[in-house]
Amino acid sequence: MSDLVPSTGQVQLELSLEVAVEQEINGVGMGVLSDGTPYLNIRGLAAMCGVDHSQIVRITNDWDAVPLKPREAKIRELVRVQGVDDHVAFQAVMRGGTVHHIVPGPVCMAILEYYAFEARGENDHAAASYRILARKGFNDYVYAQVGYNPDGTSKVAWKQFHDRVTLNYHQVPDGYFSVFKEIADITVTLIKQGVELGDKFIPDISVGMAWGKHWSSGNLDNVYDSRKKVPHYYPAHFPQALSNPQDAWVYPDEALPEFRSWVRKTYLPDKLPKYLSSKVADGSVGGLKAQQAIAVLVPKKLSASTATAAIK
Questions:
Q1: Which helix (H) or strand (E) element contains residue 80?
Q2: Peptide bond into 235 cis (omega under 30)
Q3: How much is the pLDDT for 207?
Q4: Which of 107, 229, 274, 308 counts the most CB atoms within 10 A of its CB?
Q5: In DSSP terms, which residues pair with 154 in a beta bridge?
Q6: How many CB atoms lie within 10 A of CB 61?
Q7: For residue 295, what are the CA distances in angstroms to 19, 21, 31, 199, 304?
Q8: Are strands 91-95 and 13-25 parallel, antiparallel or unpaired?
């Protein structure tokens, strides 16, 4: 039964929405959509209920059966008493170009309540889960677990950025600048736009590689002074930390005006949209968030619509 999936009716499709952040916490898959809606995935809800996920799939598949079976009729009643429309059991949303099935909060609470207090036989696991969510509030519980800030910025992303700054701020010698430090404004803007940074989305690597090619092709060691390598450390929760320290280039301060001009005139309008497009394709970044970031970061005199076209 492990390959069971809900049958997706037209009413359950919300493909304009995307997954903003999703994590598995203690075996429970949960996350937040791009519009701020918290959810559990099918397996996550099953884990909280203490039942096999096939049971949740059957509930969603029988949601609109005529006539309604007693179980689904009771669960839909429990949704309605929350003051919520009971017509949709789950939503099909996009993540990394594929469809994922998620269950919104009111339906999760109704199914949990059913298994905790209405179904035959005792289910202490479901009762305990229901009490935790009822006490903390479903929205606040999921937000806290995945590190999501409903104001639009992610505590997880801020912590990852802070950890990298703490480990590396003292690694750059006097007279030199690092790409990581110089593009902090870009990184902060991406986080504020809700883009989830992490071990698979590291903008300074993209900028550093492109700037390194510009440096080499322009033979800039002979124009300024030579660049040099310094150690760069990743936080312990990054897989890259296994090979710490990494080699990172730092550049003479005399080249800083050229670097900033290159970022403004070349990287932001041309290379950043392509980089974000690759991250959308591999599921690291949602397309809507990427477009919002482009609209903010692309220099005003350039056409943001031209840049965003690269990530559609």
A1: helix 70-80
A2: no
A3: 96
A4: 107
A5: 148
A6: 17
A7: 20, 21, 25, 24, 5
A8: parallel
For tokens 């304009």, name the residue.
Answer: 16
- Given a contact cutoff of 8 angstroms between Cβ atoms, the answer to whether 20 and 28 are in contact is no
Q: What is the pTM of this model?
A: 0.55
Q: How far apart are CA 71 and CA 60, in angstroms?
A: 11
Mean pLDDT by 10 residues, the chain (312 residues): 46 58 89 86 96 94 93 96 91 76 95 94 92 93 84 69 89 95 88 74 92 96 95 87 92 96 93 85 69 73 47 50
Instruction: Classify 166 as helix, strand or coil.
Output: helix
As a dihedral over the C-alpha atoms of residue 245, residue 247, residue 248, residue 252, rounded to 10 degrees, the angle is 120
Q: 């040099």: which residue's tokens?
A: 228
Residue recorded with tokens 């949303």? 93
Tell the residue number behind the tokens 């309605």, with chain if given: 80
Take residue 75 and report the two structure tokens written for it: 């669960």
DSSP-assigned beta bridge partners for residue 17 = none
Distance CA 264, CA 185 (A): 12
The DSSP line for 184-200 is HHHHHHHHHTT---BTT
Tokens 């940074």, residue located: 197
Beta strand 98-104 with 38-41: parallel, antiparallel or unpaired? antiparallel
In this structure, what are the phi and psi dihedrals at residue 96, rounded to the nearest 5 degrees? 60, 30
Structure tokens at 234: 């990743």
Side-chain-side CA neighbours of residue 39 (13 Å): 25
Q: Which of 35, 106, 90, 13 is nearest to 58 (CA)?
A: 90
290: Cα separation from own chain's centroid: 11
103: which 2 tokens? Answer: 């269950």
Query: Taken in order 36, 37, 43, 49, is the CA torsion positive or negative?
Result: positive
Distance CA 92, CA 33 (A): 11
The pair of three-digit structure tokens given for residue 182, joined into one six-digit string: 């110089």
